[in-house]
Amino acid sequence: MMAAGFALDPPTYALFVLAAVTLIVTPGPDTLFVLSRGIDGRTAGLRAALGVTVGILFHTALVVVGVAAVYRAVPGAERVVRVVGAVYLCYLGIDTLRSAGNERSAATDGGVREGFLVNALNPQVALFFLAFLPGFVAGGGGGTAFGSGSGAAIAVLGATYAVLTAVYLGGVAVAADGAAEILRAERTGRLLDRVAGGILLLLGVWLLVG
């Protein structure tokens, strides 16, 4: 059983894991982004998954210190971050479309950075974590700074969510690479890149108008 200071008990933690798994496997921008990168290769997809996972830890840290509440307290803050994130995704999509068919090194494509920014620049994720994580912590303050026990519990929940996300998105990356491997050939490389670029561009537009 977890220590009382964490304000968590095994049944609550098990319920959180069940809820988290259900939410994680629901297709969303993070899944589509990793899928688009997985088409380019397993390493690129796994790097993107790692970046998204780091983004989740970033949002968890914001909730623990109460910074995420700024999205609800400052008028227009959510919209500004949304536009920045949308523009970045559109940039990635256009860049991928322009370089369609060209070789890209998985070791230097910045996939981790891109995955992190895709997640970190999505204000919906911050607001979701602000509402979701404290709900599983007894005495959670719901959007302000938490006490040491609640803060530690939220950190544990956020880390758990990040691990589950990494496992799932890692699987998505491997599956995307496997599917692409069947089609991968010089004459189809350009088409695969266009699909990936189109997905990223659509994600940017969705975030901008959603």
Can you tell me about this structure?
Keywords: Cell membrane, Membrane, Transmembrane, Transmembrane helix. It is found in: Cell membrane. This is LysE family translocator. There is one protein chain. The chain is mainly alpha-helical and 210 residues long. The protein contains nine helices and no strands.
Number of strands: 0
Runs with pLDDT <50, length 5+?
1-6, 139-148
What is the H/E string? Answer: HHHHHHHHH
Can you summarize the main beta sheet? none
Mean pLDDT: 77
Sum up the overall morphology in one term: globular
Number of helices: 9
Proportion of beta-strand residues: under 5%
Distance between the termini: 42 Å
Count of individual domains: 1
Secondary structure category? mainly alpha
* Share of helix, binned: over 70%
Radius of gyration: 18 Å
Summarize the structure.
The chain is mainly α and 210 residues long.
Topology:
Layout (H helix, E strand, L loop, with lengths): L9 H15 L4 H10 L3 H24 L4 H4 L3 H22 L12 H10 L2 H10 L15 H36 L2 H24 L1
Helix pairs in contact: 1-8, 2-3, 2-6, 2-8, 2-9, 3-6, 3-7, 3-8, 5-6, 5-9
Keywords: Cell membrane, Membrane, Transmembrane, Transmembrane helix
InterPro entries: LeuE-type
Protein name: LysE family translocator
Which features does this protein show?
single chain; 210 residues; mainly alpha; 9 helices
